[in-house]
């Protein structure tokens, strides 16, 4: 079962993703894609780490998300990927191959394994003036659409409330 949780910054998507992970079958794993590039984000990562149940292992993925997901579905029953937007940042020039690899990895998820994926729903605001930001928003939007297409459930978080777009 694949679940995609979308939302804006501070919409409650990571908290809802953790709740889904905690309610899933053990053993559970968190695949974290974000890496601190500045003090503020480092503090946010620390806050998330302190809020989690310490018994659930965390693996930092970088661009290796597809490979780690394939390995993890053999060992864990519930997996949380938080979040696709930071993974898109990590992919850079390998974007096309990385996106195809992730979609292939998701196609290998058995029905009895719960994979919850968190991602920002980008592009709801004004069009960015920077070509780099536009490229990122377009890549993330295309990835979100592709992942939503293979997901059993899609949820949009608004002000901490889940709105189901696609229900299993």
Automatic annotation (TrEMBL):
Question: Could you tell me the Gene Ontology terms of the biological process aspect for this record?
Answer: cobalamin biosynthetic process
Q: In what pathway does it function?
A: Cofactor biosynthesis; adenosylcobalamin biosynthesis; adenosylcobalamin from cob(II)yrinate a,c-diamide: step 5/7; Cofactor biosynthesis; adenosylcobalamin biosynthesis; adenosylcobalamin from cob(II)yrinate a,c-diamide: step 6/7
Q: What class of enzyme is it?
A: transferase
The family database entries (InterPro entries) matched by this protein are listed as: CobU/CobP (IPR003203), P-loop_NTPase (IPR027417)
Example of a GO MF term: ATP binding
EC nos: 2.7.1.156, 2.7.7.62
The organism's superkingdom is given as Bacteria
- Catalysed reaction(s)? adenosylcob(III)inamide phosphate + GTP + H(+) = adenosylcob(III)inamide-GDP + diphosphate; adenosylcob(III)inamide + GTP = adenosylcob(III)inamide phosphate + GDP + H(+); adenosylcob(III)inamide + ATP = adenosylcob(III)inamide phosphate + ADP + H(+)
Q: Does the keyword field hold ATP-binding?
A: yes
Record keywords, A-Z:
ATP-binding, Cobalamin biosynthesis, GTP-binding, Kinase, Nucleotide-binding, Transferase
Q: Which residues cross the membrane?
A: none
Keyword Kinase in the entry? The reply is yes
Name the protein family: Belongs to the CobU/CobP family.
As for what it does, the entry says:
Catalyzes ATP-dependent phosphorylation of adenosylcobinamide and addition of GMP to adenosylcobinamide phosphate.
* PANTHER family tied to this protein: BIFUNCTIONAL ADENOSYLCOBALAMIN BIOSYNTHESIS PROTEIN COBU, PTHR34848
The protein, known as: Adenosylcobinamide kinase
Organism equals Halodesulfovibrio spirochaetisodalis
